[in-house]
Specification:
single chain, alpha+beta, Double Stranded RNA Binding Domain, 359 residues, Alpha-Beta Plaits, 11 strands
Length: 359
């Protein structure tokens, strides 16, 4: 497995030469992709050099330890460090999702539970915004349809990272959030104090780096304009500024009404449309490429129930990884790190198992 690093060294040198070329930086999307790959390779090569250095140190300690007891005493610690470095390198060499370095577009939709579900959707949005803030990511509200009680029937937000390292990417962390999130609590609308179960759906799409990355023919679009509406359907705008874009070949429909300008809503709608088309294309490729994807954490099935938020017990449970904790209050304030790390670890184990099956 480690033999492949020699090829990566040559690739890193080639990327370094490309990044020194001013012409590369004239194409922002291309420069971004090269920087991502360079950062990914840098992590692997640094780990590889640490591993080889420790291997050399251990070999020297074993040789010198035959005559000098002080060197022999260092051997157990060096062996432990080498094993740790080897495991780190092994995990870094797992084929990485090529989208890990991308920003994302997240959509949260109310589901079963009516008004309570819409309130829970708003709570989920707040949770993700706090988590993004803790990661120093930027967020941008693209569109929202509010419910009568202040929740969201549907809300879309763009989340943008700050690192060129794919391991620190927004998609690398939030891609596991797609699915059905179930909540158990006493709704604000419940007068008898009974616990209800409702759900909200979360959709995550990797955002397209540049418009030309996803080719969209203008003739394949049906664009309708209409007046924005608020809770209960009342008109909140006197002009036809809201936009509905239908991509005829795929049937994907995107509606935007958050901005007062029709042009701004159209631009936001195209961002979401490109992300959805890219996700659809990738899901089709993944489905054809390997049935092994079914056992991994990230699944194409958007209806999968992935998590339960139990308010009376202050309990959070991830049904895919078995993660359970009794700090729901902290999680809803953005402390998502341990849950996401459990998903990343489970996905890595699945990928390692897949590599083992193929070897």
């Amino acid at each position: 497995m480690f033999e492949s690093v020699s090829h990566l060294l040559a690739e890193q040198e080639d990327l370094q030469n490309q990044l020194a070329d001013p012409a590369v930086h004239a194409d922002a999307a291309r420069a971004k992709r090269i920087n991502r790959r360079y950062a990914e390779l840098n992590r692997i090569i640094t780990a590889y050099r640490d591993w080889t250095t420790l291997g050399g140190d251990l070999a020297a300690a074993r040789e010198l330890g035959k005559e000098v007891v002080e060197f022999a005493d260092e051997i157990p610690a060096l062996e432990a460090s080498l094993a740790k470095a080897q495991e780190k390198l092994r995990r870094l060499l797992i084929p990485r999702d090529p989208d890990d370095g991308r920003d994302v577009i997240m959509e949260i939709k109310a589901g079963e539970g009516g008004a309570e579900s819409a309130l829970f959707a708003a709570d989920l949005l707040r949770m993700y915004l706090h988590y993004a803030e803790s990661c120093r990511w930027k967020t941008e509200l693209l569109d929202a349809t509010e419910s009568d009680l202040g929740g969201y029937k549907d809300v879309q937000v763009a989340i943008k990272g700050h690192s060129s390292d794919p391991a620190q990417g927004v998609w690398a962390h939030l891609k596991y959030e797609g699915g059905v999130h179930r909540v158990q609590r006493v709704p604000a609308t419940e007068s008898q104090g009974r616990i209800h179960t409702s759900a909200a759906g979360v959709l995550i799409f990797p955002e397209v780096d540049a418009p030309e990355e996803v080719e969209i023919n203008a003739n394949d679009l049906k664009i309708d304009v209409f007046r924005s509406s608020g809770p209960g359907g009342q008109s909140v705008n006197t002009t036809d500024s809201a936009v509905r874009i239908t991509h005829l070949p795929t049937g994907i429909v995107v509606s935007m009404q958050n901005e007062k300008s029709q042009l701004q809503n159209r631009e936001a709608g195209m961002r979401v449309l490109r992300a959805r088309i890219l996700a659809k294309q990738q899901e089709e490729i993944e489905a054809e490429a390997s049935a092994a994807r079914k056992v991994q954490i990230r699944t194409v099935d958007r209806s999968e129930r992935i998590r339960t938020y139990n308010y009376p017990e202050n309990r959070i449970v991830d049904h895919r990884t078995g993660y359970k904790a009794y700090n729901l209050d902290q999680v809803m304030n953005g402390a998502l790190g341990p849950i996401i790390e459990s998903a990343i670890a489970a996905d890595e184990e699945a990928r390692l198992a897949e590599i083992g099956d193929q070897s």
